[in-house]
Specification:
This protein has about 260 residues and is mainly β. The protein has two helices and 16 strands. The protein has a 16-stranded antiparallel beta barrel. A hairpin with a 3-residue loop joins strand 10 and strand 11. This is YD repeat-containing protein.
Length: about 260
């Protein structure tokens, strides 16, 4: 069920980690179903809540995610396959300001074995976030990490520097100024950038274009997204097009 997070993060997400309004009660705009259609067919995710806390996501292919909170903070996210086998476990650790400082993904029975990926975050005074990525192929001894990359997250950019500076990737996003479908779900604003999939604006608004540059080269638009909205400016539909290759997917959002 990583797909629901990836889809929401790359297409949507995020407000400042210190926004105290992010957990306000939703009325009529609580996301309960996401239907994504592409050349492979329909992928339907149904979201279950306890109040405004997202506690489970079930898909039409039998996969599911179970989310655990400590207070109002998401501390664990487990993903299961159609045979109810655990395939991912994500853990989240916070500082005294309730800011995410460590994200760890345990990947079970991965293509190359059981692996662990960890990212640590530093929240800077100017609103940016610095991160360091680590990797371990020993899931039984996850402290045996090797540093893979460092980077910086801003409102509109994600910069990753690999190794000791050999390669640099920069993703740049533009937003629509409307409401993200996940806005208002308790704790989601704190983890929107986890796994370095987004920027500090992803939870609050929706991405309309994504551009990519490599090692200082020109920034090239990779995808564009068009939305329709309800009266409260939450997306009802989303059509994403990959500029190279012509791949298109359509997503429908259902609220209550």
């Amino acid at each position: 069920m990583k797909k629901i997070l990836a889809m929401a993060a790359i297409a949507l997400f995020m407000v400042s980690c210190t926004d105290d309004d992010s957990n306000s009660t939703q009325t009529g705009n609580k996301l309960i179903k996401v239907t994504e259609t592409d050349s492979d067919g329909d992928f339907v995710s149904t979201l279950t809540y306890d109040g405004n806390k997202l506690i489970e996501i079930n898909s039409n292919d039998g996969e599911k995610s179970v989310i655990t909170y400590t207070g109002d903070l998401i501390t664990e996210w487990k993903s299961y396959d159609a045979d109810n086998q655990l395939i991912y476990k994500d853990t989240y650790e916070y500082n005294s300001q309730n800011q995410l400082v460590t994200y760890t993904e345990f990947a079970y029975d991965d293509e190359f074995g059981d692996d662990v990926y960890k990212t640590t975050y530093v929240h800077n005074s100017n609103g940016t976030i610095s991160f360091t990525e680590y990797y371990s192929d020993n899931i039984d001894n996850p402290d045996s990490f090797t540093q893979d990359a460092t980077g910086t997250i801003t409102e509109t950019t994600l910069t990753t520097v690999y190794g000791t500076g050999e390669d640099t990737e920069v993703y740049t996003y533009t937003f629509d100024g409307k409401n993200n479908p996940l806005k208002g779900i308790t704790g989601m604003d704190k983890i929107a950038f986890a796994n370095t999939m987004g920027t500090t604006k992803f939870y609050n608004e929706n991405v309309v274009s994504q551009s990519y540059s490599y090692n200082g080269g020109a920034s090239v638009v990779e995808s564009t997204t068009v939305y329709t909205y309800n009266a409260a400016n939450y997306p009802l539909t989303q059509t994403e097009t990959q500029v190279n290759g012509g791949y298109t997917s359509t997503t429908v959002y259902t609220y209550e």
